[in-house]
Design brief:
Elements: H1 6-21, E1 30-33, E2 41-43, E3 51-54, E4 57-61, E5 65-69, E6 79-87, E7 93-99, E8 111-115, E9 146-153, E10 156-161, E11 164-170, E12 192-197, E13 203-213
Antiparallel strand pairs: 1-13, 2-5, 3-4, 4-13, 5-12, 6-9, 6-13, 7-8, 7-12, 9-10, 10-11
């Protein structure tokens, strides 16, 4: 009978549990956040108390902070991302994709998909890809959970709110040149996801976060 060392036994016991957590559902989606812990996520050190786990949701409220998904070493390139979002009145937030972890400031890499139904100081509303595919009329309401989807295939980005297309954006290489129509770092490429706490007056909640990698 083969003998195992204690570390090997622990690996055999723990590994199936880890694998089960990452097992795709019937539609091929893997849960990134199921409501019970922030395992796999990392807060920026800037104002880290602005993002909390409460009542099964990630709650963003307070001075600027970002929560990055770091639970997978392989970057996300083509994918279908889904979550549920709720905003309080006059709240601003965002979901970044193709970004990477940083301690402070707004993420310098990737695109932000806007979360804003009634925030008065910003005309760009929920579902838009910030500054490159603008949505000017909110497709969702405050105080209600709504479905948010981000689909990236090559340079093509589609967002959906409650199953309806909100933004349809294809990155134009001609806009990436010296005229700087698109800010440096705002590229469709690869990376991870991040959730944003925007300001003390904004409260945005996220739950049921999942993703499916696409070819």
């Amino acid at each position: 009978m083969k003998k195992f060392t204690l570390p090997t036994l622990l690996l055999l016991i723990v590994a199936p549990l880890v694998a089960a957590d990452k097992k795709p559902d019937a539609d091929g989606f893997v849960a990134l956040f199921g409501g019970t812990s922030l395992d796999g996520w990392k807060k920026a050190t800037e104002n880290s108390d602005s993002i909390q786990l409460k009542d099964g949701a990630i709650v963003a409220n307070g001075n600027r902070c970002h929560l990055f998904y770091v639970g997978d070493e392989q970057p996300f390139k083509n994918f279908h991302f889904k979550c549920e979002v709720m905003t309080w009145p006059n709240s601003n937030g965002g979901i970044y994709f193709h970004t990477k972890y940083q301690d402070t400031n707004w993420p310098a890499q990737g695109h932000e998909c806007q979360v804003n139904n009634t925030f008065e100081r910003d005309p760009l509303k929920t579902g838009g890809v910030y500054n490159v595919a603008k949505v000017l009329e909110a497709p969702a309401k405050d105080n209600e959970w709504f479905k948010y989807e981000i689909i990236v295939d090559g340079k093509h980005v589609i967002t959906k709110i409650n199953d309806k297309v909100a933004a349809d954006y294809i990155e134009d290489p001609a806009a990436l040149g010296k005229d700087k129509k698109i800010e440096p770092g705002r590229r469709v490429g690869e990376g991870t996801f991040a959730l944003q706490a925007h300001d003390p007056g904004s409260t945005v909640m996220y739950r049921n976060i999942k993703v499916k990698r696409l070819p």
